[in-house]
Amino acid sequence: MKIKAAFLIVFILSSSITFSQEKKAYKVNTIAFYNLENLFDTENDPITFDDDRTPDGKDHWTEEIYQDKLKNMAQVISEIGADVSGTTPAIIGVCEVENRKVLEDLVNQESLVKKDYGIIQFDSPDRRGIDVAFLYKKKLFTPTHYKAAELLIYDDNDKSKRVFTRDQLVVSGMLDGEKMHFIVNHWPSRSGGEKRSRPKRIKAAKLNRQIIDSIFSEDPYAKVITMGDLNDDPTSPSVKNHLKAQRKKEDLKMKELYNPMEDLAKKGLGSLAYRDSWNLFDQIIISTELTKKDFTSYRFYKAGIYNKTYLVNAHGRYKGYPYRSFADGGYTGGYSDHFPVYIYLVKEK
What we know:
The protein is of the alpha+beta class. It contains seven helices and 19 strands.
């Protein structure tokens, strides 16, 4: 499979590399993000609002259902990007996970356990008890520094009315010998309406930009990847005006950001659906250095939405939507209400 994938990359990329008449072989690594749609264990945590996701709760979240959900999530992760890379993603950002235990159970599923994923996760102050996390193949990525960046939001600018939401997870390390920086996000939801909740996501975007600018202040050529469920589209004010992610990589200057998901959104593609309308809330955004055409080090090749047929609901009122794991008050046997998104990074062998 890896040999076949390498030939595929040689064929695809050879036409775009004009500095050499000689076809070359490339290493390919997938970077992915997946909203796991409330991956909770079955235990009742007295600190968070997880009562529904327990055996005696409203959702009747039993051990059997939990294990089936884990198997489904692991299956999807194991396949993202594999048709080109020949293997599972090197890096996966995830959100809507309850704790470290569910992540350990996830990476120990049969379809993932041999890939030997490491886990970076912090418990966030989110009221629902859901976190973001960073999974990485230990043989490919070595973390050197990581932290949780606290997102401070207050209703009506009143510090006694804090909105408890997810932190932003910042991870730096060496990917196959190259220094890279990753930020995993799950920005505040649109609860209460898009317009009313917009300032919260703008606040999240400003924090994200602040983190990225601090990385650039130390290294203007830094390879930065920020990813997550932003609860906004690529053209929303938070992403365009405050994170300052651009659609055209050809126009980028040093220390800027390119959003390959914007072209996908312009084509009408999305990662989730609501009231018969598609949104592309799940995004992977990269820094200028990753867009260059010198493939002697890792560069961006392509972005995509992993929306295989089996991840799409085939019937009922949610026909055509992502086949979520929970709907109409019961477990469906499905996957998530979001499709995963991914990018390929490639470099010459």
